[in-house]
Amino acid sequence: MKNWFVVYTKPRQEKKIANELTKIGIEAYCPVKVVARQWSDRKKKVEVPLFTSYCFVYLEDSDRNKVFQVSGVLRYLFWLKKPAIVRDKEIAEIKRWLNEYDHEQISIKQFQNNERVIIKSGILIDKEAIVMKQNGNQLMLQLESLGFALYVSQSNIIVNPIENKEKQIT
Fold it and tell me: In what residue span(s) does the NusG-like N-terminal domain sit (predicted)?
């Protein structure tokens, strides 16, 4: 059975590696977002990887070593001592977000423990929460108004810090 795996790449080679993997017959996906970049003489929109140094590959578990035929692939991302598998629906959700949302609004953010945030998508839109902890892209949010904690992935929900510093917990 084919699965989406995450490969770790050399820096700034994600798009090139995705193209090279495709050339050797491996389905690869490097999600990119369009951002405006300012140079001294001009401003230009460029495509940058959504996840730096990561690329997704869709293949059989038995074919995992084939990715190392491409220069720049360093290793697989592991979770609980096994290669991390990304569900099809999560890849589809990333693609949907990149098609439907303004790319300037899409980012993976680092939050501080006890930082107040506001949820800006999904069924809990406009609810305030407190970041209890962050593990990579996973957040544990405490929803005071509902009296429970919630685990969410930043790839599935938009969470923004609350700008008012008075609302920060110390």
Answer: 1-98
